[in-house]
Structure of Riboflavin biosynthesis protein:
Amino acid sequence: MRTITLTYPHTFSGEKLPETAAAIGFFDGIHKGHQKVINTAVTQARQSNSESAVITFHPDPSSVLKNDGQQVQYITPLAEKQQILQELGVDRLYIITFDKTLASLDPQAFIDHFIIQLNIKHLAAGFDFSYGHKGKGNAGTLEDHSRGAFDVTIIEQVTSDEQKISSTRIRELLQSGNLEEANRLLGRTLSVRGTVKKGDERGRSIGFPTANLDISSDALLPKVGVYAVKVVWQNNIYEGMANLGYNPTFTADRNEPIVEVNIFDYNKDLYGEELVLEWHHYVRDEVKFDTREELIEQMEKDETAIRHFFYHER
């Protein structure tokens, strides 16, 4: 998959680019609803012997428009989004830099510049897609703004249990610890990438060595607690348990949560290695224990419960 970052104005023209079927949207999470839009473009490209593309935006348009300075956290940070789109068979990824200048474009100018000039011949979008200044362009105006240069397919709302599948709904599920339902709506297991860094090595001293993951601050993590996880490293998959939190039994002044993973049946040095952590099941809240012995006893129970969970999941 070729990734192309665009700002306004760009210098591409349709004469230099292949005919393309594209899906357009922000697509945070790339959940089942998003996948229907993206798969429509990929299928259309194959049928027309053209290239497929996803046109997306970065950073989150809502954060630019709100201008509140808050750290944006994504269900799928950009690197994760790229990996998933490649797995979905997308040929090209256009990442449009969303800034105040782009937000001020009128809808027709946006379509002329970022759709027609990119030689898009078929555009797939969700029913709630909007574009142009103050979102004045929407799914209903795409055909008029196409100037006859491309065809349009609008994907209607995708639901589960009579509710719209949305990034907002998935965020709420993650914050409540309902990983199974979040993963069902995503159509895959939530994952995050992190590099193993040096920790205080306290886990090793109590019989539960952990890999401490340095995870990008723009990755949305589930609620604080203990989880059944899988770790992917060098095409191998390991089961384990992760603690996402502040380690209150030993630390009283930690401001940001950390991720510590005990990988079952594995005890080699992974410092500096990038791991993919898959979140499968929420086990319990993080608790402050009065003694090390109480903590060890609970971790032994957690391990037994998690091994049991994965045994029945196979």
